[in-house]
Amino acid sequence: MSPAAAPAPGTFSSLPILSLADASSPSPSRRKVLAGELRKACLEVGFFYIKDHGVPPDVIQGAFEQAERFFALPLDEKEKIDIALSSSFRGYTGLYKERVDTSQPQGDLHEGFNLGLESGQTMGGENVWPDSQGEGFREPVMRYYDAIVSLGKRLFPLFALALDLDETFFDHKTNEGAAIMRLLHYPPAPPPSSSQSESLGIGAHTDYECFTILAQDTVPALQVRNALGEWIDAPPIPGTFVVNIGDQLSRWTNDLFLSTPHRASNLTGQRRYSIPVFYGTNYDVPLKTIPTCITPERPEKYEVVSAGNYVQGRLRETYLASCCQYYELLGRTQR
Length: 335
What we know:
Elements: E1 17-19, H1 28-44, E2 47-51, H2 57-71, H3 75-78, E3 91-93, E4 111-116, H4 135-162, E5 179-186, E6 202-205, E7 211-216, E8 222-225, E9 231-233, E10 241-245, H5 247-252, E11 262-264, E12 272-279, H6 307-333
Parallel strand pairs: 1-2
Antiparallel strand pairs: 2-10, 3-4, 4-5, 5-12, 6-11, 7-10, 7-12, 8-9, 8-11
């Protein structure tokens, strides 16, 4: 009896769940088994859940509580730290001010708060904080950020093994924790049968960095598109994060690892909160195709570009165009 053929890349119908219990195992063989599971998920899906990740529940809950607290502020208070006032894409983004899927007739039905690495590098900069919230907001949010940065650093050796590299391959490329975090609020969307064509919390898109670590609350909205064009639900599972491969790592691996389109549509009638952390390499790292991802059948596809310049360019496409559209509309409505 011949073995079953491996699924074609992207033809999945569900997301795998990986346990990180052996991520730091003293046994090399157990780490390699886990890396093999990770490789399979990256080749076939580009999305997976992780459990046994070690982030304390109270740290996660504290960040969600502060997200609810921030988005409950009056609009004029939030707009004091509007992202358009920041040169490093930090601060508040309002409802409909982003439109990641330009085929959609309107902006995305969510609001966000962005923060990240504070440094002098490309894409570095100071975070901005709402004056009225004080340390009671900043401290729990940064505690969560630091915990997820540490988790991301634990994942990179597994990615190295999954790519047939030495476990330390990414160490000096990720030691500065280049991660962008967003607190997101998705109000309930009107039903698709309303006068609006479809109010997506965020339209179909791929992420920019190496990978994203997403915390979801209990409200389902996330969907992942497979290669057949089907939208596969990725509901919240207690005790897990969702991880997906981003364009940076897909590019770095010569498109071996899948950066899979996804979207969020909150049709539950409840408010939804989520916290993605977009984890990349140090911003000065050149994204030169990883040698184990080049074969005669898969020649090198991409020119070398620094990680920071790549992410900065992608963010400009998203935010600067969106901000210009928003303020142009605002100016017209106030004439």
